[in-house]
Amino acid sequence: MASTSASRSALPAAQTAPLAHIDVKRWERAMNDAEINKSDLNAMILDYLLLEGFPDAAMEFARETGLPAEVDHEAIQERMEIQEAVEEGRVEEAVRRVNELDPEILDTNPPLLFHLHLLRLIELIRTEQLEPALEFATNELAPRGAQNPEFLADLEKTMALLAFPDLAKFSDDQAHHPTLPPATAELLADPAFLPISQLMRRSQRVKVAKELNAAILESQGLGMETKLSGLVRLMSWGEDRLEKAGLAIPGGERGWADEVLKAEMK
Amino acid sequence: MAATTIGTLAAAHSSGDLLVVLKDLKNSVIGNTWKKVQVAGDDEVLAFLLQWLELPVDPIANPASIDIIVEIAVIIGALSNVGTLTLRPLLLSQAPTRLLNCIRATSNSRRLSASDRVRLLSALLRALRNVLVATADLVWGYMRGVSLRRRVVDTGLAGPGESRVSEAGDTGGGATAAKKAKGKEVDRGPGGGGGKGMAAGVLSMVFEKENLDTLLALLDYSTNLQIMLPLYQLLARLIALPSHREALASWSPPKHHPSSSETSSSLLFSSSNTRLTGSTTSPASTRSGPKGTPYILAHLLSTISPPAPSSGIPGLPGGASTARRNPKMLEATLDLLAALLKGQPDLAAVVRDWPVAGGSEGIDESEEGFVGELRGLMGGASTPVRIAAASCITNLVKAECPAGLSPIEDTSVRRGVLKRHTLDVIVELLKGDGVEDRIKLCFVLASLVSDESSLQRAAADRGCPTALLGFYVKLEDEESRDELGSDPASRARESILLALAALAFQTESNRALIAEYQPPFLPHLLRALRHPSYGVRAGGCQLARALSRSIAVLRTNLIDSGVADEVIELLRRECSGSGWEGAGERVGMDEGVSSEDRGWAVEVAAMGTLCNLVPDFSPLRTKLLANGGLSLLISLTRSPHEPLALNALWAVKNLTFRAAEGIKASVMAEMGYAPLKNLMMPSTPTPLRVQAFCILRNLVADQTPAELSRTTEAFGEDRLLDVLQSGLRDKDQDMQAAALFTVANLALGNERMRQALVSHVDLIEGLSDALNSNSDDVKHAALKTLRHLIEASTRSRRPRQAMLELFLPYQLRPRVQELMDNSEGFDVRHAAGGLLEVLERGRGEVGFGTAR
C-alpha cells in the first residue's frame, strides 16, 4: 500500500473533456466531516495483512491494536505458496497443492480449473514441449470445452499459440528481442493478435493466480479480496460516476484508484 | 483406463505406494466428469476403494491408513456430484453406509490424535454430504434450480469408433455409452427401475436413531469449521420432509453422551416432546421457553447468538464467536435453521422466545430477541449471510401463520412489518451482480410472496417484477456473449420464472404487467417452454399457469403469443416418452435426465396450467379437443404419479364444467365409465376420488331426463347408488360434499332417478346426517340436495308430497330453521332459507315438521 500513497500525488490530472469542479471548500468540509472509526481502519489493515499473506505482521498488529486474531499461519503460508507457484508457471504443482488443501475448490469451480489447465498448456508451449502440450489439450481441455461451450473461445485462443510458434516465443514481457523476425514483429503489432500474445505475458499468470487465491479465500470463508481492494474499486466506481455526471474531484486526483487497480495486475 | 486404475491400485505393495496412487487418482478425478464416470462405473475399483474405508483397530500403529481413508473419502465425495451415472454405483455399493460406519468408528476411537480425528471426520463428512445431497437431488428434485445437462465427454479426440458422449444424468443411453467406452458391462442391479426407491431408503437411513446419534454427536465439535460446515449442509438438505425434521428436532443425546450430564449444558439437551405436525396447540414444554427447546434448535440458536446469561442457558463455548467470524459458517447455520423452521409453528415460537444476550453485534433494535438478531444479520455486510437470514425469516413468518389460516388472512401487524422489511432487503439485494446470489434470492422471494397478494402488490410497488423481467431478458445477451455459463444461466431462468409466477399468482395487476411488458416477455416464456432444462420448462409452466388465472390475459396475450398452444405441445412431448404407459423413447427435449430423475415436474406443472386453459370461456378448449389433446389428457388421469393424475382429473373436471352434451360424450367415450367408476371407489386416494365425483357431478348437471337415463344406464344404476353412498359415508368432508353435490344434480333429473335415490335408505340417512356436519360445504350440499328432491319445480316452488312424507321422520323444518338462524356461512343460510320456503309451502298439507 505504500506504493499506492506515493502514486497518489504523482499522478497527472485526468486529460478528458472539461468537467465542472466540485466546490473545494464544500468538498473539504465533507471530507473532514466524514467520521472514520480507528478500530475500523485497524480491522481493515489486519484484513489486508491476513489476506495478502503477512501472518507475522498480522499477529503483531493484532496484539498491538487489541484486535482478536486467530491466525492460521500454515493456511496463509500454503495459500501464498500456491499463488506463487501459479505466478511462476508451476501450474501442475499448484493444482496438486490446492487439491490437498481443499479438494472441493477445483471440483466445484470448472471455470477456474479450466483456466489453470489453459495456463498449464501455455507453459508447455512456452517451454516448447509441443507433444505433451497436444496430448494435454486432447486429454484435459477438449472434453471440458465440449462439456462447457463457453470455454471454447478461450481454448481456441490458446491453441492459436501452437499455430503461431514465433508469436508464442516473442510475446513475453521482455521489452526487446534482438532476434525478433520482421514477420513476427508485424504479428505482434497487429491488434487482432493482441488477445493471443497477451496469454504469454506475466499478467496472465497473475490473473489466474488471483482467481485461484480468491477461490481459496472464499472456501475458507474469508471473502474473495481484501476490504482495502474493495474500497479502492468502490472509489474508482464513484469517481467514474462523478465523471459521468460531469463533475471532477478537486485537486486533480481523479484516476489514482484506477492506477492502483492497474498496478495490482502487474 | 479403468483396467489400468484397478491394476495400479492392486500393484501398490505398501501403504505408502497406495497413498501415492490414490493421490494421483484423486487429482485425475477432481473436476473431470468423464473420469469420475469411469471410476464409479468400475465395480472392482469401487470395491477396492470402499474396502479401505475402515478404521484400523490401532490407527497409531498404521498412520498411513488415516491418509488412505482421507484420500478415498475425497475421491468418493468427488465421484458423487456427476449425476445418476456415478451416484447409482455408489449407492449400490453402499457407500453411504460405509461412510457412516467409518464416521462412527472415528468418533468412538480412543486411539486417534485430535488432529487426525478432525482430518478424518472432515473428509468423511464431506463425502457423505456430497453423496447424500446428490441422492436428495435425485429423489426430491433440486433445491436451487435444476442443473443443466452435463455432457460426459471422454478424451475427446481419441478412440475412434466408440460412442464417447453420454449424459451425466441419463440412466439409459448414457450408462450404455459408459459401458461401451470401457468395454465392460456393469451390473447396475436395481438401478434400472427401483433406483429412486433405493435412494429414498438411503436418505431415510440417516434418520435412524443410531445414525443420528453418530452424526449429531459431532455437534460437540462446534468450533471446528471443517466438521460443522459439511454437517450443517448435510442436515439442511436432508430435512426436506416433515418426518425428517421431526426426527432431527426430537433427537436428544443418548445417556452415555458427555453432553447429557447434568453438570454440562443439561438444558440444551433436554428431550423434547414437540409435535411437528403443524398443530397450533403445542406442548407446554416448548411454549414455556427455552427449557424444552429441541437440542438441535438450541445448538443452532446458541451458535448464531449466545443466550442471555440471565436465561440460565449455557452457551456453546466458542461456537457463537466462530460462527460470527466466519460468514460461511454463519450462512450454513442459518440455512439449517431455515430448513428446520419450515412449516413448524412450535419451533418458530421457540425461536421468537429465544433470549439473546444484550448488545450482541448486528442486532436490530426495532425487533426484540432472536428475530432482531436475524434482522440485524439481514442488514449485514456478507451477501450470502443476508440471503440466508432472509430465508430464515421467511420460513419463520410462514410457519407462524396460524394453522388453518391462509397467509392472506394473517392479520398480525408484527409479522406484516417483518415480511415487508424482508421484502425490502430482497429487492435491494436483487440489484447485486452475483448470479448465484440472485438465484437464491428468487427462490426466497417466491417463498415469501406465495399466497400473499398484499406482498405481491408491495413487491410490484418496489419495481420487483419489472426488475426480474429485465434480468431475464438480459440473461440471453450475457449467455450469448459467453459472460455466463449455460448452467447458471439455466438455473437463473428457472428461478426468475418461479419468482414471477409467485408474484403473479394472486395479483391481476402483476399478471397484466408481465403480459404487457415491453419489449414483449411472452416470446421469452415461449422459448422457456422449449428449453433443454426441465427446470426452466417447469418454471415456464408455473408462470403460464399464474398468467392463465386471468381470463383477459388468457383470452388475449397467452393465445396470441402461442404460449397456451405451446403448453399443450409441451405436455405432449413430455409424455411421449415417459414410460409409464406403453414404451417408447423420450422425444423432443432431452436434457439427459431420465423421467425417474425429473420427478414429473414438467408434466405436473404443465397439467396445472392446462386446468386453467380448458374452462368454457377458453378458446383453447376446442383446439385441445380437435388435436388429440383429449386422449392425452385422459391417459394422464391414469398416471401412477398421483399429483399428475390429480391435475389431469382436475382438468377433465374443468373441461366438463358447463360443457355441451357433445363434449361430455367425447370425454366419456375416451375415458370410459368403468375407469371413472374405479376412480370413485374407496380404494382410490381421496383427492383423486373427490375429482372423479366432481366429474360425474358435471356430467349429470343440466342433463335432460333422457340424457340422464343414458348416463345412469352406462354407469349402472345400482353401482352408482352404492358409490354415492360410500362417498357420503366417507370421513373426508370434501368427499362428502362432492358426493352430495352429485346427488343434488341427479335429483334434478327424472322421477325414476329420484325414486331410486330415496329408496336407498342409507343414502337418505347420510343426507340427514350431513345437516349436522361441521363443514359448511357439506351442509350446503345437503340442503341443495334436499331441495332438489323435495321441490316439484322451480317455477311453482311447491313440494312433492311423497317426498314431504318420506322426510317427515327427519324433522327437517326445525333443523333447517336452526341452520338458517345460526349458521355463519352465507351459502348455508341462503340454501336453508330456500329449502325452508319450499317446506313452508307444504305446511299443513301433511303437517310437515309439526308436532302431533
TrEMBL record, chain A:
Residues 75-132 form the CTLH domain. It holds the Pfam family CTLH. This is CTLH/CRA C-terminal to lish motif domain-containing protein. It comes from the Eukaryota. InterPro entries: CRA_dom, CTLH/CRA, CTLH_C, LisH, Ubq-SigPath_Reg.
From TrEMBL, chain B:
The keyword Metal-binding does not apply. SUPFAM superfamilies: ARM repeat (SSF48371). Its main location: cytoplasm. GO terms for cellular component: cytoplasm; GID complex; nucleus. Keywords: Cytoplasm, Nucleus, Repeat. Residues 260-272 have a biased composition (Low complexity). Residues 273-288 have a biased composition (Polar residues). GO terms for biological process: proteasome-mediated ubiquitin-dependent protein catabolic process. Residues 159-194, 249-291 are annotated as: Disordered. The keyword Cytoplasm applies. It comes from the Eukaryota. It is found in: Cytoplasm; Nucleus. This is Armadillo-type protein.
